[in-house]
Automatic annotation (TrEMBL):
<dbReference type="Pfam" id="PF00005">
    <property type="entry name" value="ABC_tran"/>
</dbReference>
<keyword id="KW-0067">ATP-binding</keyword>
<dbReference type="InterPro" id="IPR003439">
    <property type="entry name" value="ABC_transporter-like_ATP-bd"/>
</dbReference>
<keyword id="KW-0813">Transport</keyword>
<dbReference type="GO" id="GO:0005315">
    <property type="term" value="F:phosphate transmembrane transporter activity"/>
</dbReference>
<feature type="domain" description="ABC transporter">
    <location>
        <begin position="5"/>
        <end position="247"/>
    </location>
</feature>
<dbReference type="InterPro" id="IPR027417">
    <property type="entry name" value="P-loop_NTPase"/>
</dbReference>
<dbReference type="InterPro" id="IPR005670">
    <property type="entry name" value="PstB-like"/>
</dbReference>
<dbReference type="GO" id="GO:0035435">
    <property type="term" value="P:phosphate ion transmembrane transport"/>
</dbReference>
<protein>
    <submittedName>
        <fullName>Phosphate transport system ATP-binding protein</fullName>
    </submittedName>
</protein>
<keyword id="KW-0592">Phosphate transport</keyword>
<dbReference type="InterPro" id="IPR003593">
    <property type="entry name" value="AAA+_ATPase"/>
</dbReference>
<dbReference type="GO" id="GO:0005524">
    <property type="term" value="F:ATP binding"/>
</dbReference>
<dbReference type="GO" id="GO:0016020">
    <property type="term" value="C:membrane"/>
</dbReference>
<dbReference type="GO" id="GO:0016887">
    <property type="term" value="F:ATP hydrolysis activity"/>
</dbReference>
<dbReference type="InterPro" id="IPR017871">
    <property type="entry name" value="ABC_transporter-like_CS"/>
</dbReference>
<keyword id="KW-0547">Nucleotide-binding</keyword>
Length: 252
C-alpha cells in the first residue's frame, strides 16, 4: 500500500544557491499528485529530495523534514532503504541496456540477495503485468535486451523495475515527455491504475496531463510552493494570482 508524504520546512541548495525555500506540503497516500511550474522552479529538485537522490550530487544539500508514512527519511533509515521504498522514474527511460527484460525487472531483488527462481519469476511477471507490459514482452523476456524495445515500452519497463521491489511511493519526473502520444496515453492509464496501490507524485509540464491523472496539484514558482490544492480547484479557481497567471499561459 502507498504511504503519505509529509514535508516540513524543506530547503535545498546547490552550492550557495538556495533552490527550494521552506516547502510545507502533505501528499495523500494512494492518490496521484502533480507538480507543475515553469522551467527551473525546483520541481525536479523537490522530488529528488523525497527519496534522498538530491544529496547524491556533491554540491547539493537539503534541510528539513520529509516523512514517508511513519519514517523520517533523513533520520530513520539509510538512503538505500529509502530509495527501495520510494521508486523513481525519469524523463528519459533508462533501462539497463545490456540486461534482458527479465533481468532489468529482477535487478533490484537480485541486488538484495534474492536468488529463488520461482519467486523471481513471479515478481517479474507481476511487475510487468502491473506496468501493462507483460503481454507485449512475455515471449522475449530473456531474449531481448532492455534497450531493444520501443521508448514507450522502455519507460513501462522502468516502471516495472521500480515496482518489483515493492515501493510505497512512485516518483515520476516528466515520465511521458520523451514519448509519442500513444505511449503517453499508456503511461497516463497506468498512473490511473497504479494509484490505488501506490502514492504517485508526477512532475509534468503538461497541464492537461496533470488534470487527467492527479487528484491534487502543487504549483511551484522560483523555489517556493505557491499553491497546493485539489487539481480541479487549481485549474478552475486558483487562490493565488500567480497560479492563475501560469495556468492561463500568461507566463512560463
Ligand atoms: N545539478 C545542478 N547543479 C546546480 N544547479 C542545479 C542543478 N540542477 C538544477 N539546478 C538549478 O536548480 C534550479 C531548479 O532546477 P530543477 O531542475 O529542480 O527545476 P525544474 O522545475 O524541475 O525545471 P524543469 O521543468 O526545466 O525540469 C534551477 O535554477 C537549476 O538551474
Amino acid at each position: 500500500m502507498g504511504a503519505d508524504i509529509r514535508v516540513e520546512n524543506l530547503n535545498a541548495w546547490y552550492g550557495q544557491t538556495h533552490t527550494l525555500k521552506d516547502i510545507n506540503l502533505h501528499i495523500p497516500a494512494n492518490h496521484a499528485t502533480a507538480l507543475i511550474g515553469p522551467s527551473g522552479c525546483g520541481k525536479s529538485t523537490f522530488v529528488r529530495c523525497l527519496n534522498r537522490m538530491h544529496e547524491t550530487n556533491p554540491i547539493a544539500r537539503a534541510e528539513g523534514t520529509v516523512r514517508i508514512g511513519d519514517i523520517d527519511i533523513y533520520k530513520d533509515a539509510a538512503p538505500v532503504e529509502i530509495r527501495r521504498r520510494i521508486g523513481m522514474v525519469f524523463q528519459r527511460p533508462n533501462p539497463f541496456p545490456t540486461m534482458s527484460i527479465y533481468d532489468n525487472v529482477a535487478s533490484g531483488l537480485k541486488l538484495n540477495g534474492f536468488r529463488n527462481k520461482r519467486v523471481l519469476d513471479e515478481v517479474v511477471e507481476r511487475s510487468l503485468k502491473s506496468a501493462a507490459l507483460w503481454d507485449e514482452v512475455k515471449d522475449d523476456l530473456k531474449k531481448k535486451s532492455g534497450a531493444s524495445i520501443s521508448g514507450g515500452q522502455q519507460q513501462r519497463l522502468c516502471i516495472a523495475r521500480a515496482l518489483a521491489v515493492d515501493p510505497e511511493v512512485l516518483l515520476m519526473d516528466e515520465p511521458a515527455s520523451a514519448l509519442d502520444p500513444v505511449s503517453t496515453a499508456k503511461i497516463e492509464d497506468l498512473i490511473f491504475q497504479l494509484k490505488s496501490q501506490y502514492t504517485i507524485v508526477i512532475v509534468t509540464h503538461n497541464m492537461q496531463q496533470a488534470a487527467r491523472v492527479a487528484e491534487h496539484t502543487g504549483f511551484f514558482l522560483t523555489g517556493t510552493l505557491v499553491e497546493f490544492d485539489k487539481t480541479h480547484k487549481i485549474f478552475t479557481n486558483p487562490s493565488d494570482k500567480r497560479t492563475e497567471d501560469y495556468i492561463t499561459g500568461r507566463f512560463g
